[in-house]
Amino acid sequence: MTHMKKTYLYVLAGLLLVTINSCSDYLEVEPYDILPGDMMFSDEENAKAGLIGCYDTFYPTKENAPTDLAMWGFKPQFMLANHPTMDTQASGWDKTYCTQDWTATSSEFEQIWIGHYTAISRCNIFLAGLIDMESYLFKAGEQTKKELEAQARAIRAWNYLNLAKNFGRIPMLLTGETYSNTPSKPRPDNEDDTWNQIVEDLAYAADILDWTPIDGEYGRITKGFCLSYQAIAKMYQGKYEEAKALFKQVIDSGIYSLLPCYSYLFDPERAWTTEDIFAVVMWSDWGNNMGGTNGWSPQEDHYMWVSYSSASMEYNGWGSLFISWECYYSFEEGDRRRKASMVALGETNPWTNQTIGAVSAPNVKTGSEFMPNISSVKYWRKDCDYWTTINQPFTLRTLRYAEILLDYAECCFRTGDATNGWEMIGLIRERAFGNQEVTLNDSEYPIPMLTETVEVPDAGTYYAKYKADNGYTADAWLIAVNMERRHEFNAEYSFFYDLKRSGLLSEFVEKEYPKNVGIDPSVNPDGALKDWHIYRKFDHNPNKMLFPIPEKEILTNDAINKEDQNPGY
Predict the structure, then answer these.
(1) CA atoms within 13 A on the CB side of 275
(2) 486 CB-near residues (< 8 Å, 6+ apart)
(3) CA 312/CA 343 separation, integer angstroms
(4) Which pLDDT score is estimated for 35?
(5) Domains present along the chain, CATH in parentheses
(6) pLDDT in tens, 182-191
(7) What span, in angstroms and rounded, lies between the C-alpha atoms of 272 and 219?
(8) What is the C-alpha to C-alpha distance for residues 206 and 340, in angstroms, rounded to an integer?
């Protein structure tokens, strides 16, 4: 592995006025100095500044790791959470993530590994120094010290959770340990040893922190963050009763609610809504606000390339994100999430007024690799130009309330509480079909709002029929939870992980993307242009539910060898 060489943290600070949700501030990180370790723990002010160095690792600056992670947060996270489901498609070398052809040398695995362990190492350095600080150094004494510890432990736990859901058992560097001072660390004997540490850190932080962020700075860890991710970790352990109780606390808190309009979630000008349990705001638009360039070389916030990455190639986009026609056609009539999420051949992007197929040949599949001619408008909400305009403000919604409701629904079904499970799914579907939009009176919105409520099809009835029509063997409730996730979180950050954790992934691929259906573009490229199916040649391999430990880690960590590699590689 490429080890973390820095033993200092960046001091970052700055507050920016939030635009909605009636909150006062949110945490923005902007480097202005470097703080040596011996100074970081000299007083409260410097300790707090050091903690911001841990928060900095949520952001995609090139300073956050010894490799270029300029798209950190979108790529590789987006690719690994979506492409293996086949609902999103990629061309070029990224195509391997749609066909299970990835290997232990694939760069995205190394980036995920390095990025998260960079954050973990910073947290461990911070926690080690904090231990020796006397309580009298803090104005509020021991309470402030505990709050700093809680935030750092929760950040560490979040990074471990992301590693565990990708790789399973992973080396657990604890307080004071980094890959510089602990270059050889074995994997735990079982996954529970990993999850238990994650749960322990989050449980500690949940007991210390409040529902509202410290100092009113949205972007800091809260009780809602800790309880939610603790519950998710419990689900990975199969402890559904415990997870259900934790989710119930979040729901009963009254802090969070679904936005009345699903499309609002992806408006660039909206940050930290009532639906956001945790988010990272890439707010600056370098061409207009910060005095930098709006093209290829912004000083920071490279992550805003998501607009350029998502826009149709027909309109100067990179074309690296395509939505499958299978996903497009899977939406029920009246489900407004499709219009808010994707624009297909013959349709017009409501935000840019650009019509797919109006400039280039109007093909169902596009480009030399026959990608589906559908683009995500969750991220493409601004005109893109290859040389000058590729960025836009953007919010990475790491965890939102809709995910809590669907996870809680799954826990209800698994614990014999089907009534509450269907009720939670009903809440998601009420929003999906637009019934809350009628209260908004937003006549200027690019997607016209509903003016009258509609009848939402009963979820139990609909998914029982869906199961029968598509030949699923899984329970109707499991299909329902995951299909709602499919439509709610398309091109976001959780769908693949939910499918595999809940046990539906293999059947989903088999039923939604039947093998050898459609026209094989390698055999008949001309015919492929007329056929909308993704042509799946490969047999889905259930041994690839976990991604491979990066080859570089196996070569450089003496406590891990090839026998430690995950199954299937």
Answers:
(1) 21
(2) 85, 87, 327, 330, 495
(3) 9
(4) 53
(5) 9-217+546-564 (1.25.40.890), 284-392 (no CATH)
(6) 999 999 999 9
(7) 8
(8) 34
